[in-house]
Amino acid sequence: MATRIQNVGGRKQFRIAQLLLVAGVLLLQLASPALAQTVRTDIAELKKMDVVERLGDKIPFDLHFADDSGKTVLIGDYFNHDKPVILNLAYYTCPMLCNLVMNGIAQGVKQLDLLPGKDFQIVTISIDPRDSISLAAEKRANYIKSIGKPGIDDGWRFLVGSADQSEALADAVGFEYFYDKEKGQYAHPAAIMILSPDGRISRYLYGIEFKKNDLRLALLEASQGRIGNTLDRIILYCYHYDPNAKGYVLFATNLMKLGGLLTVILLAIILAVLWMNDRSRKSGHDVGQIV
After folding, report:
1. Of residues 285 and 182, which shows the higher confidence score?
2. How many contiguous H segments (helices) and E segments (strands) does the chain have?
């Protein structure tokens, strides 16, 4: 009688687990591409900021500049090393905005466990042809010191060059600016670009503060998982860049998919354990009958 009750109880548990497994599969199916298409993709507000997003476009590698040591370099020299690149267009005599953007980069990078020069590269290029190499070197020294991490000397380079070269690069990334003759200053948006190791524009980040999470996810996204660890890739899967929020937000569809997948795996394990226990009880019952 006790054996029969145990068998009935085991079958009930097995049936409940089967129903939960079906529920997990349905949860995966609910996270369909159709649901994913409900996310807003308009960037009208961003267009007003004088940035024309060219996601996926590749920048020209043959543009030449002088780096902060006076060496002539090509922009392509900073790519094809399996590292994403943070590209910052600014000018070094800017009275306020450029410094705020560069301060934002430094503060954001300072919080990362990823290191410039090792995991990614930062390149700041002046849009003002009057900026000097010595001024670029001074900026670099200040910001390397501000980040305060060892071994990052080559992780952030400051370049200067002729107007036609910086304009060509700005056009390639959709960074629109102009020179205000009355004020003697450049008017430009506050934005940085994250590029893949092969020079393709992966993401734009806006403002003068760059959150640790946004910078990290943008770099992971641009590297296509080549930097970071397994947990980083899982987190990236659950997050989605929302142009309206100007940052990364939890993506409900992918979160549902991940939750459904974990549910299926967990319930499969439970079913396997129940099945093994049920077989063990049946085997013991059969041996008892023989005896």
Report:
1. 182
2. 9, 11
Q: Is residue 277 classed as helix, strand or coil in its secondary structure?
A: helix
Contacts of residue 164, defined as CB under 8 A and 6 or more positions apart, other chains included, come to none
Integer Cα distance of 210 and 227 in angstroms: 19
Report the distance separating Cα 33 and Cα 267, nearest Å. Answer: 25
Supply the DSSP string of 66-127, one letter for each residue.
E-TTS-EEEGGGGSSSS--EEEEEE-TT-SSHHHHHHHHHHHHHHH-SS-BTTTBEEEEEES
Q: Take residue 14 and report the two structure tokens written for it.
A: 């097995």
**Chain segment 146-185, per-residue pLDDT in tens:** 999 999 999 999 999 999 999 999 999 999 999 988 889 8
Residue 83 has pLDDT above 50, yes or no: yes
What are the backbone dihedrals phi and psi of residue 192, each rounded to the nearest 5 degrees, phi first? Answer: -125, 155
Candidates 122, 270, 275; CA nearest to 194 is: 122
Nearest to 85 by CA among 212, 231, 227, 275: 227
Domain boundaries defined on the chain: 2-34+254-290, 44-250
- Asked whether 128 and 92 are in contact (CB, 8 A), the reply is yes
Q: Which CATH class is domain 44-250?
A: alpha beta
Write the pLDDT tens digit of every residue in 38-72.
333 444 433 444 799 999 999 999 999 999 999 99
CA distance linking residue 67 with residue 136, whole number of Å: 8
- 227-249 pLDDT, tens digit per residue, is 444 444 445 445 555 666 656 56
pTM exceeding the 0.85 threshold for the entire prediction: no
How confident is the prediction for the chain on average, in pLDDT?
A: 76
Residue corresponding to tokens 């543009």: 63
- Please state the length of the chain: 291
